[in-house]
Structure formats: C-alpha cells, structure tokens
Prior knowledge:
single chain; 150 residues; alpha+beta; 17% helix; 31% strand; globular; disordered N terminus
Amino acid sequence: MRLFLLFLAAAAVGCQTHPPQEKTATTPPIRQAPAAALRETHWVPRELAGQPVRLPADTREPYLTLRTDGTAEGNGSCNRFRGSFFSEKADELTFSPLMSTRMSCAAIETENAFTRALAQSRTYRISGDTLRLYDAANVPVARLEAVYLH
C-alpha cells in the first residue's frame, strides 16, 4: 500500500499542470535614421519658399555642399556658385554673398529661388536626411534632402 501511495504521489507531481506563461509580444524599437551631417553632404533642394522644386527636362539638379573649411559650393541648376557659410551656434546657418557664373537656362527661376533661400537662411534643423532652412522670423525658406553619391 505504501508503494501504491508513493506511486500516486509521484504521478500527481509529474502530471501537475502549471499555468501557461504569458508571452508578451515585443515590438522592436523604432529605429530612426541618424541625422545626416550638415557638412560634406550633397544637399538637393526639394522645396523652396513652400513650393516643390520642379525642373524642366535636360537641366541639372541643383545642389549645395557645405565643406568643413567653411566653404559653401554647389549648382543652382544653370550656374555653379561658391561662397562661405557660418554656423557658430548649434542651429545657426548663414551664408556670405555667393559668387556664381552668369549663364541662363530653362531652370533660372528655380536657381534664383534657391540662391534667395540661401541668402535668407539664418537657422537650420536636420531630421534624418532632411535639412530645413529658416529665415530670421523662423519661417521655412527651403527643404533639402541628403543624396548619397556612390
């Protein structure tokens, strides 16, 4: 009999059910792309003065590159330009008057809007691959996108 009771006790312990452990679904953390660097990045304007940049066929894509030595250079679509930029505070970005060639093309209005936005720039913000330029009244004057060249 003792053997039988011992067998029953062992069977009861072996068959004991445990409540199922709850598994919580873990959502992977949302990874945001690291912010592009202000300097040594090929910035392409996508919006100027609140308007999307539209280029006529067979014209160059405008761009801006801010070099580590304080030089700003790029292409407005028709003409290359060069000058200096200043960024002494964390969010400050101003440009000296830009020198450029003087050719005309079908995208001259876009080029003029681009150089006007650079001249008005006082501050900036980078979020991911987007650079936004703001004037002295904190009104957006341009939205540029980092384009990575291979």
